[in-house]
Design brief:
- This protein has 165 residues and is of the alpha+beta class.
- It is built from five helices and four strands, in the order H-H-E-E-H-H-E-E-H.
- It has one domain (3-156).
- The protein has helices spanning 3-29, 32-35, 64-87, 91-114, 139-156; strands at 38-41, 44-51, 117-127, 130-133.
- It has a four-stranded antiparallel sheet.
- Helix 3 (64-87) runs antiparallel to helix 4 (91-114) and helix 4 packs antiparallel against helix 5.
- The relative contact order is 0.20.
């Protein structure tokens, strides 16, 4: 196995394990469902949100058929990205794809186990008496965003990237 591919697989595993461990601890150890919203800092709260849709809550679908379709789409996307990762020429591209894959698998596991993705992190602030809230997200989402940012950096600044299959 190429070193870049090995690093990408390690990034996927790390992202997946950290995501699932954080969700399990918040749900069962910390008991976030019972606690409700927990202020951690003046601008960050732990809250429990069940996302039955995709990014930013788009395409909300609580039925089993809709959840199965979303899982199937993720399986295809993960397979395509795994092929892309195996063909990648740079360490950054492989790491980035690994993060995206790990995050996608983490959120797919949630859909399978709970019928929705477990989101829990909320950044917020108040300006002039008006509250501003960011979307509620999880560590899988962080891994996916970091992976996309890495791919963008690699494609614009790094060596010529291998195109997606």
């Amino acid at each position: 196995m190429k070193p870049a591919l090995r690093a990408g697989v390690a990034a996927a595993m790390a992202g997946l394990v950290l995501d699932q461990a954080s969700k399990a601890w918040l749900l069962y150890g910390f008991d976030l469902p019972r606690r409700g919203s927990v202020a951690v800092t003046p601008f960050f709260d732990l809250v429990l949100a069940w996302n039955t849709g995709i990014s930013y809550g788009w395409f909300q679908n609580e039925g089993p058929f809709g959840q199965a379709v979303l899982i199937a789409v993720k399986v295809v996307a993960v397979l395509v990205m795994a092929i892309w990762m195996a063909r990648s020429q740079t360490l950054l591209a492989a790491l980035s794809l690994g993060l995206i894959i790990g995050g996608a698998i983490g959120n797919a596991i949630d859909r399978f186990l709970y019928g929705a993705v477990v989101d829990f992190a909320l950044f917020h602030l108040e300006i002039g008496g008006r509250p501003f809230n960011w979307y509620v997200f999880n560590l899988a989402d962080v891994a996916i965003v970091a992976g996309v940012a890495g791919l963008l950096y690699d494609s614009f600044i790094g060596r010529t990237a291998v195109k997606a299959p």
